[in-house]
Sequence to fold (220 residues):
Amino acid sequence: DAPAFDFRDGAADTSGKLLLEAVHFDYNAGRQTSVRGGRYYTPAGIWSDDHYPPNVPTQERPLHLRRIFPQLIDGLAIHLQPQWHTGSARFDVYVGNGEGNADPGKVDDNSRKSFGGRGSFIPASLPGLDLGMSIYSDRRADNGQEIRVRGIHGKWQPLPWKLQAELARAEISTVSGMTFEREGYYAQALYEIVPWILGARYDYYDSNGTLNVAETRRSV
Fold:
């Protein structure tokens, strides 16, 4: 008979990680207003907020995602969605603990908070069109950098096409008085022929505009 397998064998040589990306509560104060508190994905642009939909045709996230706007916020957000006969809008305003904490979620090393917002307009005359902008401001706890970010985004789905693009630019001031910029964008076009989706995307990311340290990627 074969010896019984002991799952403890080799346990000292294994490792793993259990990560809770986001956890939050939502309170709906009405049809057009809600409040969110906890750890949530930063409401900036399109991609970060539309997180892990059932189908992601392009496997890798755009190059500048999570490198300009932060991935997560620990804080409080207010969402408004007014509607008119000509269309609707979405507004998100939030405050958070900021980046650079030694132990996010447990320790708040920042003496100041981070602030941000996003606004989108969705005209009724062009279904599937979403145009907007995002802003963010923070002072990192670990290196004292002052960060000011601006972004614009657009999405249009005149079926069978699905078109979207985002651009983000950060102005970063160091404690020594130096200033540099980060910039990134992507443009993506998809064409659906059920059950197939054909598409292409171009990514660009420059981590320091002064040094022109740019990365690009083409996906098909």
